[in-house]
Amino acid sequence: MNLLIKGGRVIDPSQKMDDTLDVLVTDGLIKEIGKGLVAPDGVDTVDAAGKYVVPGLIDMHVHLRDPGLEYKEDIISGTRAAAAGGFTSVVCMPNTKPVIDNKTVASYIINKARNEGSANVFPVGSITYGLSGERMSEMGELKEAGCVAVSDDGKPVNNPELMRRALEYARGMGILVITHAEDLSLVGEGVMNEGFTSTEIGLKGIPRVAEDIATARDVMLAEYTRSPIHIAHVSTEGAVRLIREAKSRGVQVTCETAPHYFTLTDDAVRGYNTNAKMNPPLREAADVAAIKAGLKDGTIDAIATDHAPHHLDEKDVEFDVAMNGIIGLETSLPLSLKLVDEGVLTLNQLIEKMSCNPSKILGLQRGSLRTGSVADITVIDAAAQWTVDADKLASKSANSPFLGWKVAGAATCTVLAGRVVHKL
Amino acid sequence: MAEFKHKDIIALRDLTKEEMELLLSTAESMREINSRDIKKVPTLRGKTIINLFYEASTRTRTSFEIAGKRLSADTVNIAPSNSSATKGETLADTALNLLAMKPDIIVMRHAVSGSHYFLSAKMPGCSIINAGDGTHEHPSQGLLDMLTIKDRFGRLDGLKVAIVGDITHSRVARSDIQGLTKMGSSVYLAGPPTMMPPGAERLGNVTVCATMREAVQDADVVIMLRIQQERQGKTLMPNAREYSRYFGLNPLNLKLAKPDAMVMHPGPINRGVEMSSYVVDGSQSHILKQVENGVAVRMAMLYHVCGGELE
Question: Counting CB atoms within 10 angstroms of each CB, which of A186, B154, B231, B258 has the fewest?
Answer without folding.
Answer: B154
